[in-house]
Design brief:
It is built from 18 helices and no strands. It is mostly helical. Among the domains are: 62 residues, Tetratricopeptide repeat domain (Serine Threonine Protein Phosphatase 5, Tetratricopeptide repeat), CATH 1.25.40.10; 101 residues, Serine Threonine Protein Phosphatase 5, Tetratricopeptide repeat (Alpha Horseshoe). Helix 16 packs antiparallel against helix 17. The termini are far apart.
């Protein structure tokens, strides 16, 4: 081999090896261009294009990941890894029919894993086919009973179909595998609440709030769901600090401001309640419930003209929501 060829070969190996090291360290922003460089320097000779697609998927750059994976799959039609990854990416791009077709092709080449079946189930969720979603999510947990996210997904599917005891069971299985899963704990509370088990629901909601307080990346839902439970049980005073945390986490959450406004109004702080509810209707002006609650808060504050205007607007919006389903 000529000395120039040796130098080029060393450069190719170096680019791929650097990319592998970055990928292993979860440094996907570094690994993606390095894999692209390795592919450009030695087209079609390695799996660099596949690994670039995986890196881009981890960066949530799904359109670019799809392009890389399709190119690799066209050159390596016998690669189940490429097809399974492409199926995952298509699901994330909200292309469930294409994703299912890709998974079918992949399954002809290699047996799917539990995570693959979980994504198949999520494709059926996107297609609003919950019977098949539940069937495939059950297959996913049967393949791997330690797949915590599959148990969580099964719980969500069952909950969506009002199968609350079964949903609670699935969320408990998820929490047995990962007790720090705040989403599973919050949804366990919802399943218990909808299954008319208020004591268990409150225990789960409290546990979810503890987990959320310890998670710097938490969303508003643990606070909002527990506060909503408290409001439904006529405990607005206890709901207020939870809703204040929800608003701090998600300042553009109309529901958070709305329920905080309702709780304030119900505890005699009508003027503060009006302020929060006005923020809520600004964020979600077509929500009739928010206008209704704002009307009640205005009435509690003694501002009757504004109260009548908001209640009338609420009635009008409720009518508008119902009208498409009416027979003429």
């Amino acid at each position: 081999m000529a000395s120039g060829s040796v130098a080029i070969y060393a450069q190719e190996v170096n680019a791929y090896q650097q990319a592998e090291a970055a990928f292993a360290a979860h440094q996907y922003a570094a690994s993606a261009p390095l894999f692209a460089q390795a592919e450009a320097e030695n087209p079609g000779k390695t799996d660099a294009l596949l690994m670039e697609g995986k890196s881009l998927a981890n960066l949530r750059q799904f359109a670019h990941a799809e392009a890389a994976l399709r190119t690799y799959a066209s050159r390596h039609p016998d690669s189940p890894d490429a097809l399974y990854m492409l199926g995952f990416v298509l699901n994330r791009e909200d292309k469930p029919a294409e994703s299912l077709n890709t998974y079918t092709q992949a399954a002809k080449l290699a047996t799917p894993q539990s995570d693959d079946l979980k994504v198949v189930a999520l494709d059926y969720v996107l297609l609003n086919d919950y019977d098949d979603a539940i069937r495939w999510m059950k297959q996913a947990v049967a393949f791997d009973p330690k797949n915590e996210q599959a148990w969580y997904g099964l719980g969500r599917c069952l909950y969506s179909q009002s199968e609350f005891p079964e949903a609670a069971e699935a969320f408990q299985r998820a929490l047995a595998l990962d007790g720090s899963d705040v989403k599973a704990e919050t949804n366990l509370g919802l399943a218990f609440e909808m299954g008319n088990r208020p004591q268990q629901a409150e225990q789960a909601y409290k546990a979810a709030v503890v987990l959320a307080d310890a998670d710097a990346k938490t969303d508003e839902w643990p606070y909002l769901d527990y506060a909503s439970f408290l409001l439904e049980h006529d405990r607005p005073t206890e709901a207020i600090p939870l809703l204040e945390r929800a608003v701090a986490v998600a300042p553009r959450c109309a529901q958070c401001h709305g329920k905080l406004g309702r709780a304030l109004a119900e505890t005699g702080k009508a003027r503060q309640g009006v302020e929060e509810l006005r923020k809520a209707v600004t964020l979600s002006p077509q929500d009739p419930k928010l206008h209704y609650d704002l009307g009640r808060a205005y009435r509690a504050a003694g501002e009757m003209e504004q109260a009548r205007a908001e209640l009338a607007l609420s009635a009008k919006l409720y009518g508008a929501k119902d009208s498409p389903g009416r027979k003429q």
